[in-house]
Amino acid sequence: MLFIRTLFFFFLTSVTFSQNGDFYGKIKFNTNEPAIGAFIIINGFEYYKEISTDINGDFYLKEVPYGNYTFQIHSLNSKPKTVSATLNESKKVVNIELEFIENQLDEVLIVSKSRKKIIEEKGFAVNVISTKKAAIQSIQVNELLDQSAGVRVRQSGGLGSTANYNLNGMSGNSVKIFIDGVPIRNFGPSFSLNSIPASLIKRIEVYKGVVPPYLSDDAMGGAINIVLNNITKNELRASISAGSFGTYRADIIGGYRNNKNGFTARGSAFLNYADNDYKVWGNQVAVTLAPGTPDVYIRAKRFHDRYRSQGGKAEIGYTNVEWADQFLFGAVLSNMDKQIQTAATMEIVYGNRFTEQNTNMYSLDYKKTDILKNLDVSAFASFSKLNRKTIDTIATQYSWLGYPTNYYNTPDVWTSGAEAGNPTLQKDIDKTVNTRTNLTYRIKENNTLQFNHLLNTFSRDSDDPMLPAIENALKEERKYKKNILSLSYENLAFNKKLRTTAFAKSYHMNRSSKLRTRSSNSSNATIEIEENIVKSDDLGFGGAISYKVSSKLTVFGSAEKAIRLPEAGEVFGNVSTNINPSINLKPEHSNNYNLGFSVDKIKFKKHNFGVNANVFIRDTEDLIMQFPIGNDEEFFENSNVGKIYTEGFDFELNYNYNNKLFFSGNTSFFNARDYNVTYDLNGNPITPSYERLANTPYFTMNYNVKYNAKNFIQQESLFSTYSNLLYVNEFFRHGSTLGGSGKTVIPTQISFDAGFAYTFPKNKITFSFDIKNILNNQIFDNYALQKPGRGFYSKLTFTIL
């Protein structure tokens, strides 16, 4: 009997081990980030295998005999971990969570090379900006972006001013901004890249040209994705800073997670204040001391440009639990008030005009890997409400002297009754609903199918008690809706060296408006409601490819037929920023091409090098640009400018010596030309002018040097110093056609910044000091609107928990 049982046991064992199955799963940290490149050793009965996780933290192991196994996981950012698993079915899921430990290796200020390398392998032209080291400096997010290859951030003044982003020749809303993959327009202007402190941000991903489908939106010229520090452990950090021109900033970020049940709460808050009372000068800063006398050019101090904003973001829910990787309710509350110093240019000065606004946004965020077998899902939904008020009721004329113009002892007044037209106390209520859904299905180990959907709706209600009652009774309506659907397929081949992505996008827009119109400017003018309805349906497609030639060299390319739908703010305008409505705007269309390479980890003794280069072409029709209008260029208006052809390149070199001395240099050049055909009086075509695109800087260079010294003065301390040089070649403010009018040149600009930071032992406190625009040069951006001169700033960052 014993013999029979023994024989039966060995027979059963042999049958069991003669069967094979597959192991697969995901390895991630308790921060919910994938453990990229984690090394796995799998041991079993007469079985041994070594594999690594991919870019998503996934692994897949085929044809494994049934039995008991141990998994030993090794990662640079965690302690080794061992788990056991039994394979007794055709496919076995093994999901493992590692405890994240901050990597102690020094990082490059601008680019996290390892992360950048991973993203580049998907074939998109991209920069990745790490904010870990920069967060301790008195530096704005826009300044970090301005130091990145192919990026030019254009602000209309100091802290809180309007910013415009140019990526390889494309600008305005052609470049989409995201926060954790959510379009930033939902957060309101008081929660913007100009107000969010760098310490609240983990990294910034800058996609130039073709954009990954998962971002969903109609980004035609590129995208900037801000990845926030989503803390999933007990931590509390804060910082305060102060500097020139009455600038003060403070922020705090913290989080809590119960490791037993996954309950998570995290939040952040910030406060910004600036007088922005820096000096301006040049051919736009002039005063007339008496009627009929020549203008006198002066150095003047901005006197009506105070900016104040505050905001907070809070999330509560569960992370890394069995039924969800992330399930969080969120709220973003922010408000802002800002004095308005100038019109579209600095020729007109305001002394009483200002705006107030606040935004409330509520959201639900859900993510789950393997919600069904091989299927991942993420969904985000939000509702936001923006209240904005524009105050302009005093007609007094101001000059750059800082007080009302005063001829014959009587202050001059604007005949319109206010500084920017008719008196106004206009209140706008903008309501936005945004939903984003991503479904990812892994067909096989090396094939992935992804579906994305974005829905965005917008409505605005306006009321102005300063209007005549009969006119204000004619209620205006503004509604906007867009749907974007995308389907993408990704394939890995040749041992994952070749990565190919193909995608298609469907764009749908429906907008309507009922706006008041006047038959004339006389008192007997007839006021009517003009209704406008516009629908648009378009199809775009594209692809990206990359090939990992070696562990050091990756080549990539991408192409796309892209469509960009006009934004609600472009169509309906904005009184507070002097933007007029443009209800007849058409969508932009562009054929985008990128080709480049990335060389990394070139080592020679203690020297490390990296090179990235990208060439691009943009063939664009109906490009939307914003221009000042009127004789005094007081207001902006968006319009389609026809056919623009752009070609150019950007190049970046990174070097470090012994992880102590770091250098980063980049150059960007593009040639955007007007290819519109005009016609003479007889209808004969006239050769295009091929003039350069107006008000667009086309040649920039940036150089950054940083040095780190450990154990400086004190043991376990860190001292770092940096300097940054920005060069912007001169460009035309208006047209450059020979014999044309308004050929004002924005001169060549050079800005030099420097600073240092000292981190005390135990990494609890860091003090930094920065000097910006050391040479005190004139720095211009949009239509010669001057930015601050030399300024001194200090910052104290400390860890509470």
Automatic annotation (TrEMBL):
Highest taxon, organism lineage: Bacteria
Its membrane topology: Multi-pass membrane protein
GO terms (BP aspect): siderophore transmembrane transport
Location in the cell: Cell outer membrane
Domain TonB-dependent receptor plug per the UniProt entry, residue ranges: 124-223
Molecular function as annotated in GO: siderophore uptake transmembrane transporter activity
GO CC annotations on file: cell outer membrane
Domain TonB-dependent receptor-like beta-barrel span(s) in chain numbering: 309-774
Keywords: Cell outer membrane, Membrane, Receptor, Signal, TonB box, Transmembrane, Transmembrane beta strand, Transport
Similarity-based family: Belongs to the TonB-dependent receptor family.
Protein name: TonB-dependent receptor
Source organism (scientific name): Polaribacter vadi
